[in-house]
Task: structure prediction
Amino acid sequence: MPKYERILLKLSGEAMAGPQAFGIDAERVRGLAGEIAAVSREGVQMGVVVGGGNIFRGIALAARNMDRVTGDHMGMLATVINSLALQDALEQMGHHTRVMSAIQMHQVAEPYIRRRAIRHLEKGRIVIFAAGTSNPYFSTDTAATLRALEIKAEIIAKATRVDGVYDKDPLKFPDAVRYPEISYLEVLSRGLGVMDMTAIAMCRDNRLPVIVFNLNTTGNIMRMSMGETVGTLIH
Result:
């Protein structure tokens, strides 16, 4: 029996690249789609926000010499590409999916309208939110938090390369200590880089819990949705 009725899943763009440094790995995307679809079939309403790092990283060097606003808009368009790839994988599995973009592009995605998004979720469709907030200077973590609050998700599930929140980077420091639970204030005061600080502050102000877990462990999305202990709970 699922613990949550409505979840906002935040995926990094790098999750779409698989073992590659950049681009989209079709097999990896199919694997992610299979896990998301399995959770949806259990009756959980799924909203998804995907980053764009796997695509934008390839142009980031050029973007360093660009205006920040232009670079951020390029990153938003990268998230649309990832969202369409995930939608295609889900629909090939027979699962109804909608991509809703904060930047209007009617030929490829629906415009983001809050009430329409909630209606899609109520009908059992997976909704992928693309193009961030459409505003520069905001990360996809912040966009995910905003969308989670707007659709009244019960929790944000942030999928990462590590199995929770640590006191320091576990990929660099073998003696890093993982927190099973941690408060918003501790994340902010210790400067733990698990999410954008603006996103953590928004979650704190609205009492929206966040689960940080390892996406590379197959089945973790399902375990998290069923209420099993995975990763770190920020609350």
Remarks:
- The chain has a mean pLDDT of 93.
